[in-house]
Every structure is written in structure tokens, then in C-alpha cells.
Amino acid sequence: MLEAYPDNRLARILLWSFCALVMAFLILPTLVVVPLSFSASNLLEFPPRAYSLRWYEAFFGSATWMAALRTSLILGTLTAMIAVPLGLLACISMNRLGGKAAVAIQGVLLTPSIVPGILLAIGLFFVLAAQRLVGTLFGVLVGHVVLAIPVACIVLLPALARFDWNQVQAARSLGANWARAIGGIIVPQLQISLLSATLMAFLTSLDESVISIFVASGQNSTLPKLMFLSLRDQIDPTIAAISTLWTVIVVAVVLIVTLRQKS
Amino acid sequence: MMKSLPITIDSVRKTYGSYVALDDVSLDIRAGEFLTLLGPSGSGKTTLLMALAGFVRPDSGRLSLDDRDITRLAPNKRDIGIVFQNYALFPHMSVLANVEYPLVLRKTPKAEARQRALDTLARVKLDGLAERNIAALSGGQRQRVALARAIVFEPRVMLMDEPLSALDKNLRETMQYEIRRLHDDLGITTIYVTHDQREALIMSDRVAVMNSGRIQQIDTPQRIYNHPSTRFVAEFMGEANIIAPGLVRRIDGADASSEALMIRAESFHLDAKLVGRDGVALEGTLRAKAFRGENWLLTLALDGGQEILVCIPAALATGCAELATGQRLTAYAPAAKVHAIPGARA
């Protein structure tokens, strides 16, 4: 974008300032919690008058918070492990089917990412209730997989559209069955997209709170659910400490994945 | 030499909605034969090839390999080697890994697979390139890798879908001879798809000319070229003139044919002495002339208004440079080169 104005200094300065402003609006609210988390006060106050690590201690010392953290990480991992292969297979079939049928299936498959989360959560609650799955880890997992499949598809569909399908036919003619053609020819070449899809699916689950509030219960509570509940009951800087840790973890994961793709 | 098998295609039909891609096609291919499916795009030749490969399921009809029905057999169980138009090499594997791939799938022991892959690479003159990346190869080298990969597992049938269309002219001609030589060495039944008439004539034992989902004629290259059975084949195979009966005059004055005649542009002479007494003569006005290196192409407007193409080899065309458009000209063709096409209207 900037290359279009190589000589116009004013235009460059304006453009850079605008970008900086947008970045600030996006990033600063996230960063506000960082000083809050190191506050010594019992209340969320900005700027903090004294600093301490007590809220980090509170977090790591609490069995409830630790259980929720574990649940969230397990859920995120399982969600990615289930949603990405399912999404890949769905995308392959849509890619092969083509035409109106593929558009229709794509529409249905992507609805969970369009429908308001609360509607999905209510619907899921009733479906799971009928199966007596409310409150189980499996129930929450189903919800998260449903949300993560469209996310995975959005990453994988364009990658598959660019893929040379003749290669799969060549593999088939050389003696590969479907599983081997997908595993040996498609997957290795879509590695980067699959990695992105896995990361996005993992983060979708990690970030999800509405379904978890409706469906998860007791020891299966996820971290976001517990954060919401604790915000409602008492406002203490533990939330800020968790948010800070959370941001650091997510940024680290995204950075690692991005850097690995570059290399 | 590998054991090659005959193929029988029996009334195979394939439609896409109202579009008929294959219209009850029947064809027998002999064991070890090199048969070319020739036709314009949309003629059904690639659909037929893909049906043999197992990627297109016919609506009706039967495909058999040596009397064994393969119509519904999965592509990976057919043991057919295929060379794709864009080669479809696996870019994430080395040249060697590409060629070893079918052997690995067949659980060939590692050392043997490697040896066979290297031998096959040597056969297609790619020794020394085994460890290369696909991206580092030229178009011609990729073509050879695709060939090696398709023959390394000793398939009983080989299918080739316009394999040379992406190469430049000189390389294409070299590869035509090499593919034919490879076929002769291996004796493998080969079905070759192309829209290039010269390629079909040069390479094939027999040529099947296809148009609108049907086989128009199946014959040896010589018969297809010299004795086309339909107007379509006549015109598709080269610069053919289809001339209405009344416009042709026998040199000896005898009655000319009452059927439409096909005379190829290169069959004409401007000198009556080069044509026998039983030859034919066509009179007209010169409309255009073009020098094409090895020959001159003249466009002659006959008295009825029909235009014909006349092609005179440069060696015999000493006077052509002086010809002026608008002047009267007579073109002669020997009787042997005049071919009646029953039912064709000019």
C-alpha cells in the first residue's frame, strides 16, 4: 500500500499515523489489563498504586482455576484434533462436488459461525439435555467442534481450491486408495493451511464462553466460563492476571506458528 | 517384456445433464497396440480415457480388460499407468520418490523399489536427476518423470492424455519418437489422446477420430489420411477440399464422379504433365497466395464461387512468386488422390 506513494512525504506520514492509531485502538485495551494484574490492591484500579504478584499466586494456588485451565487446554486440543480432520474431509467433498450442491453444503456448514452464539448455545443445550449430556466434557466438546469446523473450513477451502486435483488422480492410478491419496498427497502439501486451521480451531475452543456457560458445569467449567462467573460475583484482579497470562500464551503460540511457516 | 492386455469398450455412454459426452462408443484395442484417440476439444476423447482410468463412471456400457469387466473397478485396482496432461507430479517428493511411489504402494522391498526406479529413470534418460526436486526440472524432464512413474510398476495398459501439449515444437517431436520407442520396447497396450493430427499420424498403429462423443472412423494412419470416411475426418486430418460434383472436370473428358470429392491441398499440381490423363482439373481465379517456407498456399475461387486451397511444394513452385491475384489458374490432381465421400455435400 505504501509503495503507491513513494515520493509524497505527507501522504506517507498520514498513512503511517492512521495505521498506528488503528493498531493502538486494537491493542491498548488488551494491554490495560497487564498493569492491573500486577496491582497490590483488592480492586481493579488503573493505574495501580502499588505492585505485587499476589493475583498470580491466587490464580496458580486455586484448585478451581487450575482445573478450569486444564479443562480448557484439553478441550482446545480435542476440538482441534476432531474439527480439522472433519473440516478437511468436508472441504474435499465440497471441492469435488462443485456446483450448487457444494454451495448449499458450504452454507449449512458455515452457519455455526454466523448464527449468534447464544442461539447455538440454547439449541445445543436442549439437544444435549435430551441425550443427558449436559454438564459433561463431551457435551462441551460437541459444541466446540461445531463452532470450530467452519473456522477450519474457511482456512482449508481456498487452499484446496488451489490444489491440483490431477495429483490425487495420479496417486489413485498408481495404486493409492482414498486414505493413502489424502494422507500421502493432499495432507503434506496442505501442511501450512492445516497448521493454521488447527491453531484457529484450538483458539476458537479456548476463547469460547457462551456454550461453556450453558453446557459445562462444576469441574468441567472452562476458563472463560469461570472468568465470567467470577466477574459477576466479585471483581478482583485475578481476572487481570489470567487475562495477561492468556494473552501471553496466545501471542506466543501464534508467533511460533507464524515463524515456523516462514522458515 | 511386460504382458500387455487387449481392451474392449462396449457401447459406453456418458451424459452430463443434456450434454452427451460419449454416445454409445464401442472400440476394440488389441494387446500391445498403440491407438490414438484424435479429435477436437469436447469430442469425448478425454472422457473416454478417464472412463478407462476409472475417474468417469459410464451411464451404461461395459469396459473390459482382457475379458475382465472393469467398468466399476476402483482406479487404484486397475493397474493402468496414466500420464496426465500437466504431468501431475508430486511436488513435495524428489524425482526418485515420485517414481518409487507406485512401488511403495505395492509394498515392494525398499532396495528393489529403489533399483527399479533408478533403472526406469535411466530408461527415460534421466540418470543422475534422481535426487532433484520436481520444481528444479524443465518441462521435458517433468514429462520424462511422469513417463517413468507410469511405467515403473509394469502396468498392463498405459493411458496418455495429451502428454506433449505443454512442450515446445522441437521437444514435442523428439518426445513423439521416444514415447513410440518406449511403447515398442515395452510392448504395452497404449491409448494416446491428442488433438494434433500430425502427432496421431506419426505415433499410432491405428487412429480413432472422434467428434461429438462418437468415433467417426478407426483405421491406420494412412487410411485415415487418404481415405477418410466422413467429411469431418477429411477436413480434420488436413487441408482438405470437399468439392461439389459439377465443378470437377476429367482431363481425358470422361464423366466425372457424381459424388462429392475430397482432394487434399497438397495433392494439386499446376502442371498438367505431372498428372495422368485420368486426373482431374479445376479452373478458377487466384484469390490469395502465401509463402510458407516449404510450400506455397494458393486460394483458388472456382467458377461456382467455392474456394479451394492448393498447396504447391516450394521445389515445384518456380512460377508461384510471379502469380498475381485475380489471374486465371487451373489446378490438376491425379486420380489416385481424388477420393469420393459418399453422402457429403460440398
From TrEMBL, chain A:
Q: Does the keyword Nucleotide-binding apply?
A: no
InterPro entries named among the record's database cross-references: MetI-like, MetI-like_sf
Question: What keywords sit in the KW lines?
Answer: Cell inner membrane, Cell membrane, Membrane, Transmembrane, Transmembrane helix, Transport
Presence of keyword Zinc: no
Which parts of the sequence belong to the ABC transmembrane type-1 domain?
69-257
Record localization: Cell inner membrane; Cell membrane
GO cellular component terms, semicolon-separated: plasma membrane
What's the protein's topology in the membrane? Answer: Multi-pass membrane protein
Known SUPFAM superfamilies for this protein? Answer: MetI-like
Query: Which parts pass through the membrane?
Result: 12-38, 58-91, 103-130, 136-160, 181-203, 239-259
- Fetch the Pfam families from UniProt: BPD_transp_1 (PF00528)
Q: Name one GO biological process term.
A: transmembrane transport
The record's comment on protein family reads: Belongs to the binding-protein-dependent transport system permease family.
Q: Which protein is depicted?
A: Putative spermidine/putrescine transport system permease protein
UniProtKB/TrEMBL annotation, chain B:
One of the GO biological process terms: putrescine transport
Cross-referenced Gene3D superfamilies: P-loop containing nucleotide triphosphate hydrolases
**Does the keyword Nucleotide-binding belong to this entry?**
yes
State any GO CC term. ATP-binding cassette (ABC) transporter complex
Q: Name one GO molecular function term.
A: ATP hydrolysis activity
**Alphabetically ordered keywords of this record:** ATP-binding, Nucleotide-binding, Transport
PROSITE patterns for the chain: ABC_TRANSPORTER_1, ABC_TRANSPORTER_2
- Per its UniProt record, what InterPro entries does this chain match? AAA+_ATPase, ABC_SmlMolc_Importer, ABC_transporter-like_ATP-bd, ABC_transporter-like_CS, P-loop_NTPase, Transp-assoc_OB_typ2
Q: Does the keyword Ribosomal protein apply?
A: no
The segment(s) forming the ABC transporter domain are 7-237
- Tell me which family the UniProt entry assigns to this protein: Belongs to the ABC transporter superfamily.
Name of the protein this chain belongs to: Putative spermidine/putrescine transport system ATP-binding protein
Q: What organism does this protein naturally occur in?
A: Mesorhizobium sangaii
